[in-house]
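A protein record pairs a chain with a discrete description of its three-dimensional fold. The shape at a given residue is found from the number at the same position. Here is what such a record looks like in full:
>
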Amino acid sequence: MLEIPEALRPDGRAGPWNDWLAVLPARTAELLDEWSLTADGPPIAGRLSLVVPVRSADGRPNVLKVGYPHDEAAQEHLALRYWGGNGAVELLRADPRRFALLLERAGPENLTERWDLEACEIVGGLYGRIHVPAPPQLPSLAAALQRWTEQLRHAPAALPPRLVEQAIALGTDLASDPGCTGTLIHTDLHYENVLASERETWLVIDPKPLSGDPHYELAPMLTNRWDEVAGQVRAATRRRFDTLVDVAGFDEGRARAWVIVRVMHSAVWAVEDGGAGGADAQEWLTRCVAVAKAVQG
């Protein structure tokens, strides 16, 4: 039996997360046996998954990813299959029912140690490779945006009213725009979700795909690695934003609108959930407001 990392061991409390953790060792062992895989290193705890370095029957180094069942990950296999290894890790096998994926091995190096503008250039180039016509099975960004905009109408008082009103107006317009749907987008493409690879220099991992607008993608690159922008939030955020827009060839106004909408939605969820991205609710709210202001000049 594999040694499951401490972060992925049940704590005895009732609930779906601990129910999944309880069956995780047996499920992983079952997949290793069924797919003729041999463990090739210690398992790694993801935020909502277990990742096991493995060797396939032909000796190829791969990874087995066993994920916690949740809506955002339900279509990960579909996005990876559509990309076919073009700019993203290759999907070799999938069992969507068990949220299990056999993937090309990449990493461990990611973009967190690269100069942030170099990382933005890399990600901006990857946008053009992964933004392909969306498969019809994907949920649409437009439908989700309508729900999120309605939530924003009941935003907590802690959020700045002017920015809330601006995000509602922009979100309403974007949801009715034909360009809001039709492109396969990653939605969570940040510094840790791009890994170094032998096959290609950099490959995308861990999509939470939607059928949407490519301009939706930018916000995670602005809100992550926040400690590096201390003392120069507006200028540093604008440099990242401008680099991503220029390299990707995006429309600046549309990209700006999506960043404002997205960070204000994120601020609402952080206040309601007590935090996000490793920050407490107030810290994340301050970060989101700073980004929304920075991209507006």
Remarks:
- The chain has two domains: 6-104, 111-294.
- The mean pLDDT is 94.
- The longest strand covers residues 49-55.
